[in-house]
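Ticket reopened. Same input as before:
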Amino acid sequence: GDSVTQMEGPVTLSEEAFLTINCTYTATGYPSLFWYVQYPGEGLQLLLKATKADDKGSNKGFEATYRKETTSFHLEKGSVQVSDSAVYFCALSDRDRDDKIIFGKGTRLHILP
Amino acid sequence: DTGVSQDPRHKITKRGQNVTFRCDPISEHNRLYWYRQTLGQGPEFLTYFQNEAQLEKSRLLSDRFSAERPKGSFSTLEIQRTEQGDSAMYLCASSPRLLSGNTIYFGEGSWLTVV
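Engineering reply: fixed in the latest deploy. New output:
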């Protein structure tokens, strides 16, 4: 079945460092891809999404490009801030499966001042 | 638009008791989803509704779990005879289901602790 694999955390970086969180997926159909973020004590928030190959989703300085050839959707940010500390989830939804979202296990990010 | 609302936010119950969670989706969203999230894991799909019809149930949803959406608006998730393994955060989400790749909006979750 469909699945999402993302790099294990925790990831610890200093403020202003470059961030990459890897995500790859397996899907039988043509999925839409998402990154969700969960701040401490809060629910899930959509960070960005891409619905077709080569689309780039972006928000709050974060970017991810839908790479069909490598089945990847890596999250990047050029200069992280302490406020970016959170858990990041890569996810997919498949129109052929009624848009049910399937999540990766999450990557915890710690940014040190 | 007030977002997806869940109640209660926190519940502590003794093993063997029944608990019920309520979810109020964003108005006019006809899709409603329930997920479960345990510590250190991503959310796992439990079930979803299209209007009042329950279209899919995960194998994670044992016979002790039941979900309803009687009028196609709010939904309830009931857990009977709770077990310690039921301790988790239960997340509700909704979407308009107009096009594929719709954004699904999550509530802040209901934490359940079974002691």
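The interface with chain B takes residues 4, 32, 36, 42-46, 49, 51, 89, 91, 93, 95, 98-106 of chain A (CB under 8 Å). Chain A has a mean pLDDT of 92. Please confirm and we'll close it.
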